[in-house]
Design goal:
There is one protein chain. The chain has 576 residues and is α+β, with helices and mostly antiparallel strands. It contains 19 helices and 12 strands. Helix content is 55%, strand content 14%. The strands form 3 sheets. Strands 3-4-5-10-9 form a 5-stranded antiparallel sheet, with no helix packed on it. The longest helix has 40 residues, at 336-375. The N and C termini lie far apart (66 Å).
Length: 576
């Protein structure tokens, strides 16, 4: 019966993610991998070791996977996800994992991941994110022997049996160099917490050393330094914004599994299971610290996406699952919790299928439009973005979104174009006539550039923001709109409270004001044909604000510019 439950769970999980995988359109990094030659996968990955980071195996793997038919790729991704849930289950129950193969225990972490990991599609459905999913799987697999060691069981007693495990420990960091490292620390903690009477043998120490060597080689990759040097930043204050953004995203990401862990651990503590309660709290604390360490390492690596934070989420997911497995013994009625969540997860999966169907159709129509423009002899094309999809929209799904990201170039190469642009606004010339907020005047922000206007207009439920300049506008290398709306995230609302209001435009020179401004929502623009228009000697920069930045009520705006390499910050009051 228990084996049948495991089989049912794995079949359903595989089927859901397989179907979503074949429905998901290619976008962003997927294009980059799909266009790379398969016969040079390892060579391309080795090149990226020196130019873009240390994840040699991850890049080689994705180049190989993206070259396969959609059904095969989706099959591989779905298998990875199924194995991840199996590894989480074994880590949770240790030597007793076979005796805990009930359906509610198997499905509980899967439902929580699919429902509560912010933008779970980034980790599980975006094909390029497969190496993040695999990183979590590999780390869980690496920790399983240490989990058994906690129970005094040494699963690798001979050098022959342990040598593949040690080799695996060495090569794992080459998959994803940043998010994998907390496993190293966690393994040491598990060794420290292991029963004194257990004899660990040589293999844990050998794996520990191998992990150190592999991690050192990935962190020291020349590509990591090249990537850091090429990062677009105004000055060191960007680190403060990154830290604030990371703190917000981390707390938001791990909030649900952490809250559930605390609830289940409390149930265990209030019951007659004092010995188990001590073990649950201790293990949960270790995993939480490892999760914090994962986030701290992400700050150093500059990768503060939910995909990267998914590893911190998985660590807390394991802690939650351990607490649940113990709590359900004290209070059997808790079995209803997974059943409720599974129902919501099924509903969400159905909505996601509808979303993907719309996106696939939009992708098909876009390709038809590109083919038609090519027949007319056009080599540079302007395309409209995908349709908006509910609150958890897919605004970044289009490979052209967010010029000057490199995906537009890859898209152009794939379609035989010189360049392709995604229109930030289909009719920028009408922005001034349809403004809902505006400031007009003349403010010298540098000896050569003058700010003439700032305005906000509504387009199809979104807000478009624009600023016009006179003078030597070719010196403007980058412009950033820092905004705050009534429905902005918590960190943005806090920053708005800390920033003093102004009655007229001013160039910000105060260090505290600059620091607080870094916490506002950010829309970056580089001069390009789809972000800049020239008329009567005036240069107009414009962009559509991302819905996550908030759009309700009047916007509060600051500008950051790079003028001939020097940063300038301007705070501007807007009329309502």
């Amino acid at each position: 019966m228990k084996t049948r439950s495991a089989f049912i769970f794995l079949c359903i999980t595989f089927g859901v993610f397989f179907y979503l995988g074949i429905k998901a359109p290619l976008f962003a990094d997927d294009y980059t991998y799909a266009q790379a030659p398969i016969f040079n996968a390892l060579g391309k990955a080795w090149e990226m070791y020196f130019t873009w980071g240390g994840r040699v195996l991850g890049h080689a793997w994705m180049i190989a996977v993206e070259s396969l038919p959609d059904h095969v790729t989706s099959c591989i991704v779905s298998i990875f996800i199924c194995l991840l849930f199996v590894a989480i289950h074994i880590l949770t129950y240790g030597a007793e994992w076979k005796n805990n193969l009930s359906l509610h225990k198997l499905a509980f972490p899967a439902a929580v991941l699919f429902l509560f990991l912010p933008e779970a599609w980034e980790t599980t459905l975006w094909r390029s994110a497969t190496f993040y999913t695999a990183a979590g799987l590999f780390t869980c697999a690496f920790l399983i022997p240490y989990r058994f060691l906690l129970e005094g069981k040494n699963v690798f007693r001979s050098a022959i049996a342990s040598s593949p495990f040690v080799a695996f420990a060495f090569i794992t960091p080459f998959w994803v160099e940043i998010v994998i490292l907390p496993a190293l620390w966690l393994a040491a903690v598990c060794l420290f917490l292991s029963p004194k009477e257990s004899k660990a043998g040589f293999w844990p120490l050998a794996a520990y050393i191998a992990f150190f060597l592999g991690s050192a080689l990935t962190i020291a990759a020349p590509g990591n330094f090249a990537r850091a040097g090429a990062a677009v930043a105004f000055d060191s204050m960007i680190l403060i914004r990154a830290a604030a953004s990371l703190a917000y995203k981390y707390s938001y990401t791990v909030a649900v599994p952490t809250a559930l862990f605390l609830f289940f651990a409390l149930v265990v503590s209030l019951g007659k299971m004092s010995g188990n309660a001590k073990r649950v709290w201790k293990t949960g604390a270790c995993l939480f610290v490892a999760s914090l360490l994962s986030a701290a390492l992400l700050l150093g690596g500059g990768v503060i996406s939910y995909r990267a934070l998914s590893f911190a989420f998985i660590l807390m997911l394991i802690a939650m699952n351990m607490a649940y497995g113990t709590a359900v013994q004290a209070l059997p009625s808790l079995r209803a919790v997974p059943l409720i969540l599974i129902g919501f997860a099924a509903f969400w999966a159905a909505l996601t299928c509808i979303d993907y169907t719309r996106l696939k159709e939009a992708e098909r129509q876009r390709d038809i439009a590109v083919a038609s423009l090519k027949q007319e002899g056009k080599k540079t094309v302007f395309l409209e973005e995908y349709p908006g999809i509910r609150q958890r929209n897919f605004f970044f799904l289009d490979p052209l979104r967010g010029n000057p990201l490199p995906w537009g170039n890859v898209f152009s190469e794939a379609h035989g174009l010189e360049q392709a642009y995604l229109l930030m606004d289909p009719a920028p010339e009408t922005l001034e006539q349809s403004a809902v907020q505006e400031w007009r005047g003349s403010l010298a922000i540098s000896p050569t550039v003058t700010l003439r206007s700032l305005l906000v207009a509504k387009r199809n439920g979104h807000k478009v923001i624009a600023a016009s300049f006179a003078g030597k506008t070719e010196q403007i290398k980058e412009l950033v709109f820092l905004t705050a709306a009534a429905d902005s995230p918590v960190q943005t609302q806090l920053a708005r409270l800390l920033l003093p209001p102004v009655s007229s435009p001013m160039v910000v020179r105060s260090l505290p004001q600059r620091l607080f401004g870094e916490l506002l929502d950010r829309t970056v623009i580089l001069p390009a044909p789809n972000t800049l228009t020239h008329q009567d000697g005036i240069a107009l920069y414009y962009a559509k604000l991302h819905p996550r930045a908030g759009s309700e009520g009047p916007l509060e705006v600051r500008l950051q510019l790079k003028i001939a390499g020097a940063p300038v910050v301007v705070q501007i009051p807007l009329g309502k």
